[in-house]
């Protein structure tokens, strides 16, 4: 099975990648279109040069690899994708050959977390508009994509991962609940900048507290992103 997990930034996406890697039967890849996205947009993200050097920059080659031999000859292939990377010029036809899952998080939490790491945050940076568009694309392919909320996973990891695995036709394995501290060999090179908290973890963090209160530009972005989150939240497991 090939699983494409679609998330925006500052979600539970890296922890979910570690969870599936901990199964033992699942190869993983971390944001394979990142370098192609930076080349096409010219954005000056942290560690841009290192990212560009670490991955193929041709999106067609990336898409071909996602459907090619699974690394390590594993039976399953978990692909962690950022929705904001799927700009014009990044192919989507390969999505017909994978199980598409959409990982959502309340945009107030995303904006507060991402804004602490990246100045000048905008709606396009957090991936909510792209996420609903990709969900609609998967539906147009004749699929029934799965939606799961990171807040629900935090509240009850075993129950939600069991439901997720059942929804995509995969057996739940208890080892998915824990992973070694310190990261994973398949982390993207950008992990040094973004993954500090998850590198200190050995499992899913507990449920979060109240939603952060946003002001100014952040509150405006929240107002724009919220309908996209709510559209998918109505469909979640």
TrEMBL record:
Q: Which Pfam families match?
A: Sulfotransfer_5
Which Gene3D superfamilies has this protein been placed in?
Answer: P-loop containing nucleotide triphosphate hydrolases
Domain of life, per lineage: Bacteria
Q: Does the keyword Hydrolase apply?
A: yes
Per UniProt, the keywords (alphabetical) are: Amino-acid biosynthesis, Branched-chain amino acid biosynthesis, Hydrolase
- Asked if the keyword 4Fe-4S belongs to this entry, the reply reads no
Q: Tell me the PANTHER family matching this sequence.
A: AMINO-ACID AMINOTRANSFERASE (PTHR42743), AMINODEOXYCHORISMATE LYASE (PTHR42743:SF11)
Would you tell me the protein name for this molecule?
Answer: HAD family hydrolase
Report the source organism: Thalassovita aquimarina
